[in-house]
């Protein structure tokens, strides 16, 4: 199903998942879709491998973690959370050097905790990894130490940003 992108989310600079200056990271981009899903696009590299040919499960988990954690910002742009639990199911190997699509949705939102679920989808539409996770809402100043010279939180629009994304049916 093709879904319109309503908004691109901000990126950080050094984050492993979304840091635009982190050349060992995934440089993931996050897009808010018209149906309330958050979609993430990324390419993993050979230096993210576990066994040769497959991406480390921790890297896939990190992608899912941040995608689910950011899905809360669709309805609460000012909410920040830390992961308190994540459960991941690895159903198929994830290759590197191919475009990965990760989607996340919020399933429960309470005053201090929120939960969500997500899946990592391969280019042929197969779901390779699923996750469910829970986060505790905290003030950003209680989560992070900033070095204002290198840590920023900004929108990085790109000419290649898509206007819509095709979400394959679950398989
Ligand atoms: C310049 C600006 C730059 C800004 C940003 C830059 C970069 C950002 C990049 C991306 C960000 C965007 C979105 C990211 C979203 C997700 C991405 C990944 C996030 C992470 O990668 S983040 C790292 C991993 N994560 C942690 O680092 C957490 C470590 N941990 C702790 O820091 C403590 O653990 C804490 C504070 C969580 C709690 O500690 P505490 O002492 O305050 O709480 P305590 O244990 O007393 O529990 C209080 C009440 O919560 C209940 N409770 C606790 N745990 C629970 C659970 N699991 N399930 C259900 N209930 C739970 C208790 O049952 C009790 O409930 P009650 O009060 O009712 O009894």
What are its keywords?
mainly beta; 8-stranded antiparallel beta sheet; 2 helices; 8 strands; 11% helix; binds ligand 3IX; apoptosis; hydrolase activity; lipid metabolism; transit peptide
Description:
Its EC number is 3.1.2.2. InterPro entries: HotDog_dom_sf, THEM4/THEM5_acyl-CoA_thioest, Thioestr_dom. It holds the Pfam family 4HBT. It is found in: Cell projection, Ruffle membrane; Cytoplasm; Membrane. It comes from Sporobacter termitidis DSM 10068. The protein has an 8-stranded antiparallel beta sheet. It contains 2 helices and 8 strands. The two termini are 13 Å apart. β6 and β7 form a beta hairpin. Helix content is 11%, strand content 37%. The chain has one domain: Hotdog Thioesterase (Thiol Ester Dehydrase, Chain A, Roll), CATH 3.10.129.10. By secondary structure, the chain is mainly beta. The site of ligand 3IX has 20 residues, from α1, β4 and β7.
């Amino acid at each position: 199903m093709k879904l319109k992108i309503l908004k691109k989310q901000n990126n950080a600079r050094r984050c492993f998942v979304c840091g635009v200056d982190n050349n060992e990271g995934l440089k993931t981009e996050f897009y808010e879709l018209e149906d309330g899903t958050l979609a993430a696009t990324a390419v993993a590299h050979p230096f993210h491998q576990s066994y040769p040919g497959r991406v480390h499960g921790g890297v896939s988990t990190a992608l899912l973690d941040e995608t689910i954690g950011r899905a809360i910002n669709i309805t609460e742009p000012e909410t920040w959370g830390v992961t308190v639990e994540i459960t991941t199911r690895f159903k198929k190997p994830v290759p590197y050097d191919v475009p990965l699509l990760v989607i996340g949705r919020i399933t429960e939102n309470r005053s201090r905790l929120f939960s969500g679920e997500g899946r990592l989808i391969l280019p042929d539409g197969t779901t390779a990894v699923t996750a469910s996770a829970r986060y505790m809402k905290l003030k950003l100043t209680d989560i992070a130490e900033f070095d204002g010279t290198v840590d920023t939180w900004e929108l990085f629009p790109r000419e290649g940003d898509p206007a819509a994304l095709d979400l394959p049916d679950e398989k």
